[in-house]
Design brief:
The chain is mainly alpha-helical. It has helices at 4-7, 9-18, 26-41, 50-71, 79-92, 100-109, 112-122, 127-149. The protein is elongated.
């Protein structure tokens, strides 16, 4: 015999979220709880599997985005693509773009020379500042390399 909370997908999802704790997941848990409440307030039947399915699809997507972001490498041939991928994955992983850890993660993906120059000389205040300076640095460096070869 199953406990009543486990028979109802909405209650099961809410109960499950109640067991997830910690500073790295608190924001995600709050977001998921808010989404469950929104569905409930929009009169989605408590027995609808959407409560459970959406929770696990989002959790898998979130975990996958964090893993992809951790493994993302600097794309020398297409800096704009790298910035776009980082931006998308950071949003999916629910990393606030302008938080210091997210900016430092972005900086850690750059070449050491580029990161050092940006950090020591320019110190952009936000993610998009870092992205713009990284693109500018790469374009300037590519132009200089072209001049050396001619």
């Amino acid at each position: 015999m199953k406990a009543p909370q486990i028979r109802i997908p909405m209650k099961c999802a809410a109960l499950f979220l109640g067991f997830i704790k910690g500073p790295n997941v608190d924001d995600w848990v709050k977001l998921q709880t808010d989404e469950i409440l929104a569905k409930y307030n929009w009169a989605v039947n408590q027995n609808d599997e959407v409560y459970w399915d959406d929770l696990f699809w989002d959790m898998a997507s979130w975990k996958s985005a964090k893993e992809k972001l951790r493994n993302l490498t600097w794309i020398l041939s297409d800096v704009n693509m790298f910035v776009t991928q980082f931006h998308i994955l950071a949003n999916q992983a629910e990393y606030p773009l302008d938080d210091h850890p997210t900016i430092m993660l972005f900086a850690s993906k750059l070449s050491f020379k580029m990161m050092e120059r940006i950090l020591c000389n320019i110190r952009p205040p936000d993610f998009w500042g870092w992205a713009d300076v990284a693109c500018d640095y790469h374009q300037s460096n590519t132009a200089i390399q072209g001049l050396r070869m001619s």
